[in-house]
Amino acid sequence: DSGVTQTPKHLITATGQRVTLRCSPRSGDLSVYWYQQSLDQGLQFLIQYYNGEERAKGNILERFSAQQFPDLHSELNLSSLELGDSALYFCASSVGSLEPYNEQFFGPGTRLTVL
Amino acid sequence: SQKIEQNSEALNIQEGKTATLTCNYTNYSPAYLQWYRQDPGRGPVFLLLIRENEKEKRKERLKVTFDTTLKQSLFHITASQPADSATYLCALPNQAGTALIFGKGTTLSVSS
Predict the structure, then answer these.
(1) Closest approach of B36 to chain A, Cα-based (Å)
(2) I want to staple A18 with a disulfide (CB 3.0 to 4.6 A). Which of A13, A44, A79, B38 is the partner?
């Protein structure tokens, strides 16, 4: 158990809908990262938050947004869902932000299926 | 942009043998490289980090090498066991140092 929790575990929804994925980092970790993993693309970095502020952006679509709250939990919002958004979404946390040597602790993931 | 290549084919070996996985990268010189293990349907788990000034790093049955001239890292599992069967991912920081870029992984299968 990494100490990172994600809810829900599974999510099935229809095209055009909006969903919210939730992540709670390990106790004491200030950074939260979001990743998308699909069979053909592998693990793709979406966005990072550090202590409530956005720190880095990866291949995140404009239809997707995220935030980190004062209690450090984070939410990833996916809107106008398309079939291609079906994937595993992982949240990870680490102690710091810009220090390069921090390992990341991954949550169990949310499996999103868009029908 | 950075490109990471791992053996796309699965690696099948017998129990007790040494598994060697390869990670090649292009276009820049990262300050470090990380290896993760991922089991089906689960999140990746950190295994090892090796810095650019380290040639080799060991942890129990795991050994990682980092050749900055060849732009390659090798990941070895000695005395492999069926429980080592998983997908192994290598990851490098992007050039800005703000995110980790993951390879697509190599799936290892160890048979008894």
Answers:
(1) 10
(2) A79
Q: Do residues B98 and A48 make contact, with C-beta atoms less than 8 angstroms apart?
A: yes
Indicate the residue type of B76.
H
Q: For the segment B9-31, what is each residue's pLDDT rounded down to a tens digit?
A: 899 999 999 999 999 998 878 88
Q: Flag the least confident range among A5-19, B80-94, B95-109.
A: B95-109
Nearest to B32 among A101, A105, A109 (CB): A101
pLDDT at site B27: 80
Contacts of A110 (CB under 8 A, 6+ apart): A6, A7, A8, A9, A10, A11, A21, A88, A89
Q: Taking the CB of residue B98, how many other CB atoms lie within 10 A of it?
A: 16
Distance to chain B for A64, nearest Cα, Å: 18
Instruction: Report the chain B residue with the minimal C-alpha distance to residue A34.
Output: B99
Higher pLDDT among residues A44 and B8, named by residue: A44
Say whether B96 and A56 touch across the interface (CB within 8 A). Answer: yes
- Which of B32, B46, B47, B52 is the mutation pick for testing A, counting most A CBs within 10 A? B46
Which residues of B touch chain A, with CB atoms under 8 Å apart? 31-32, 34, 41-46, 49, 51, 89, 93, 96-105
CA atoms of A25 and A110, how far apart (whole Å): 15
Provide the pLDDT confidence category of residue A100 given band limits of 50, 70 and 90: low
Residue B5 φ then ψ, to 5°: -125, 130
Average pLDDT estimate for B75-81: 97
